[in-house]
Structure formats: structure tokens, C-alpha cells
Design brief:
Blueprint: H1 13-21, H2 24-30, E1 41-45, H3 51-59, E2 64-69, H4 72-81, E3 88-92, E4 104-110, H5 118-129, E5 132-143, H6 149-166, H7 176-182, E6 186-193, E7 198-204
Parallel strand pairs: 1-2, 1-4, 2-3, 4-5
Antiparallel strand pairs: 5-7, 6-7
Amino acid sequence: MQLGGFDKIANIYDGLARLVFGKSIQQAQEYLLNDVPPESKILILGGGTGWLLANLLELKPACEVWYIEASEKMLELSKEKIKQSDRVHFLLGTENSIPGNIQFDVVITNFYLDLFTTLSLDSVIEKIRTAIKPQSLWLATDFIESKVWWQSVLLKIMYYFFRMTCSIEASQLPDWNQQLAKNGLTRLKSKFFFGGLIEATAYSNKADNTFSSPRRKTFFNA
């Protein structure tokens, strides 16, 4: 991922998300926070403006967070939202900036895996997975492919916009669920938002031979 790509829209990013998706983006990312064990060492990649971080610290006061963001402006906005920063380690960077001397209990990648092509996503996932403990949690919230025509059009518009303004790598949505399963993670639960276009999923870093369709073992929330 390119450093600083989201600097141009950092100040309007949350407003744009609310304009297009209402509360769905926020609700999807908050859905899995209760599953975070207390006193966890948590890795957050691509945390954005920091609103989720503030909520997480309030909900899990004993956790310690490594917050990695590729946009310097996003990182600055995140720091402004945190009153007690002694439990948060802010790092400007990408998955390549993950500290090598720490094994994390939880990793959170919200709207992060969709930035990569299918080809490069394999190496991104593997790099992240080496930094988390066996049977740790991987919480991922992101867009998924839709057969609803207007949702497919919306996805194409979003990818065009973010490629032009933020120089993201991907030009279309990768099947990140499939890639996580391919790399040995096991689905625990998930829930759909915004008419099924957004999925919040909890994975375990424990290999399993089964991988079911997202819509078979989960329940739908429009």
C-alpha cells in the first residue's frame, strides 16, 4: 500500500462514509468489538480517523493497541481522539511496519483487505498472520461482492474514486474471505450490513478443513 494515499481525503473520509452508507459502516465495525478478550494485545491495520479506536479503549480498558495507519493525516486525527495514549502505540506505515517482536492476541483489518489485488493479498495475509498467536482472533469488516445491480455499480464507482484520489492498488474487490480461509484461518461468525454489501467476520488463527459460504452459517442484517 502507498503511504499517504488517503491524506487527501482524511478530513472528509468519515463524512463521505456516512453520506453513502449511513450508520452501516460504524455498526459493522462495532459489531465484533465485544468478542475482543480483555487485556489483549491488539493490532489494528488501516484504522482510519480513530473513532473505532476510541470506542475500543472505552469498551476494553485493559487492552494494549498497536495502531498502524498509512496516512499521516489519518494518524494525526486518531491521536486527537485519544485521551489516554499510554495504551496505544501509533505507527505510520502498513503491514510491513508490524513489530516483529510482538505476538498479538487480536488483529483488526477493517476495510483494509479490499485495497489489495488477489495476487498480493496472499502475501499481505501471510505477513499479518505471522504476527498473531495461534487461535488468536482476526476481525475483518469489508465489502463483499453483490449480485444486486446498484451495489455492483456502487463498488465500481468506489474503486474508481479511490484509485484516482488515493492511488490504491486494487481495481476490483478481492475475495478476502476465500483468501483468509486459504491461508488457514477458520470462520467463527459473521453478520451482514447495508443490504448484504458489508460483512463483519471473526476468524480464528487455527487451521480447519472446512470453509462455508458466508451466507450459509451467518445471519442477514439489512
